[in-house]
Amino acid sequence: MPAGVEPRCAGTTERLVVPCDDVSVSAIGFTARYPVDAATELPEGEYLLRCRPDAPSTVDGTACVRFTGPATVEPTDSEVAVSFSDSTTVTLGVGWDSDADRGSITVAPTPDGVATAVTAMASAHHTTAPARSHPSFRAAPPSIEVGDETTVPDRIESEIPETGIEFRVPRSLDAVFVAAPLAYYLGAEVIPEDRERPLLAAPSAGVRREFGGLPDFQGECADMLRRTFFLDCLTRRVSPERDLLDPDGSPSLDPESVRSLSPADRLARYLEVPDEELSSSLPDWHLSTYAAPEPDRVPCLPHLLDRLSLIYLPAASELEATDLLDETLTDAYLTRGHCARSTVLKPEPGAGRVSAWLAPGTPIDAFKASARAYENRSRARTGGADELRVAVVLNEAEMRDERATVADVYDEGATGLPIDVTVHEELTRSELAGVFETEHDFVHYIGHCEDDGLRCADGTLDVADLDAVRTPTFFLNACGSYEQGLELIDNGAVAGAATLKTVLDRQAATVGTAFARLLTHGFSIQRALDLARRRIMMGKDYATVGDGTFALLPGQRQPVVARLETADEGYRLSCDVLTVRSNGARYALPFDDGATLNGTRTERVLSEGELREALADASLPVVHEGDLKWSDEIVECLE
């Protein structure tokens, strides 16, 4: 067994079955780790199989099996079987997951200190080969703490790959933050020095790529990461994207020869690929974060790199409330209370389809991230439970229709995982406080919000006064609940949806129902809210606070979004998956047996009958004429 793994027993067997949720196998003596998602034949050699238990266990850490091939590894949803042609000696052991418990990096909040931490983040990669583009080969980076001096634990130091790539950047936190995602992915050593223009170099391979100074460096750095990542996806051995290599040889790469190159030589080879060969093929990038490079945000870097987020410096234009939507729709309708209209910020366009705002101010079309939200995420339950616990709170009788609808949506679920739904009505302040302080997975509040808190039967509850919030996610479907949402994050929650200003009861109910259904289909908080607010005219009034990449069902299959347009030949149906939890993975198409890379939109032109057949067995959101519908609704309309 490798270091850190405690042998438990050994014996001979012809077939071994291990319960697990996530499995990978590696050849002894090699650092690359390969995910196993189908029956795999292993030739002669020594192997180490690692798997995480699928359910709570008396065993801490990752189960390990060491054996000698040839063998067949066959995974299912809840276990993995290893079969041998003859009785073979196997050794079972338990060790710490190499993705965790490696200690924290302590850094001085200086360009040199933070650069040391970014360099060490690459220790999370299981390999420097093109397979690093697959999420199974990227572990969670080590955490960062800010201190007086910079220290890197020996275990982390020993796992930093030697790639021969250097990233020389201006001696500023701005430059180090922007360079961090590319440096992390390439495994480059970040070296701050007195210069104006960043330089990416690999001396042994003759690479010298100079970037422009800030702010141009931001876009150029993002483009380089997208380019390198995509070319790795094309040439990797595990789940390759060969179908995206054009028949005429564009991009002009031979996967076998590229995989044999060192990281430095592979970077040099990638830089030779003409831009025009890639411009039309690059998938959409999933996430951009606008981060203010301040010492208190340095601990957020591992979380941003774990999601492979691009990093931009904060840049936005101010929008007054009247710019969000006309204010005339007020007195004629019931609204969920009254609230102050505040100025919000619209981030400048970046390369990511989803945006995070890790800086002062209230963003629109981006989730309001915070160091506290990321800290809470690291402690939150992220799967493995037998059921989800959802609390629906109705504190206004006239909104009873929404309560019944969303309760049914949560109760039905979408993926077979049982959901325990508890409905509360007309709660007092202490009772509502108890709901947030109980270990629910999600709280859906329906009611009113005043300037001093959420309205209850005996007054208002300011969630800032709670002892601790033990529910990671929430939806405050009440007027002007944004500040209360921020307080829930500060008190322990990870992410939630709230409103920036007055919302109409009828439209709020529409958003609430759509949001609930999207969550139970595996969408993250931000993606669910982005899609749900398409149902109403005043959708800009809704915002996500905390880590919008967090999902209520993180272990479920990747959620697909379809777009439907009428075409001359019938219907044009396009699909894509854009989830930060598995950037670099492939997703199965709902209308045939194909699969393609996350961020790549596929398109089919179908007749009415073919469209009905494609959507009949699917359960997915469909954007049609700017509105959000569900596949069963589309089928019903066709019939």
Describe the structure.
- The protein has four domains: 5-95, no CATH class; 105-303, no CATH class; 315-546, Rossmann fold; 561-638, no CATH class.
- It has 16 helices and 34 strands.
- Strand 13 (285-291), helix 7 and strand 14 (310-312) form a beta-alpha-beta unit.
- Helix 1 packs parallel to helix 3 and helix 10 runs parallel beside helix 13 (505-519).
Share in β-strands:
25-35%
User: Which fold does the CATH topology of the largest domain refer to?
Assistant: Rossmann fold
CATH architecture assignment name of the largest domain: 3-Layer(aba) Sandwich
Please summarize the sheet with the most strands: 6 strands, antiparallel
**Count of DSSP H/I helices:** 16
Strand order of the largest sheet: 1-6-5-4-2-3
How many domain regions?
4
List the uncertain runs.
Answer: 54-61, 96-100, 325-341
Fraction of residues in H or I helices: 10-25%
Classify the oligomer: single chain
Radius of gyration over all CA atoms, rounded:
25 Å
Shape: globular
Secondary-structure class: alpha/beta
CATH class of the largest domain: Alpha Beta
Output the CATH homologous superfamily of the largest domain.
NAD(P)-binding Rossmann-like Domain
How far is it from the N-terminal to the C-terminal residue, by CA? 61 Å
Look at the structure and give the mean pLDDT. Answer: 83
Number of strands: 34
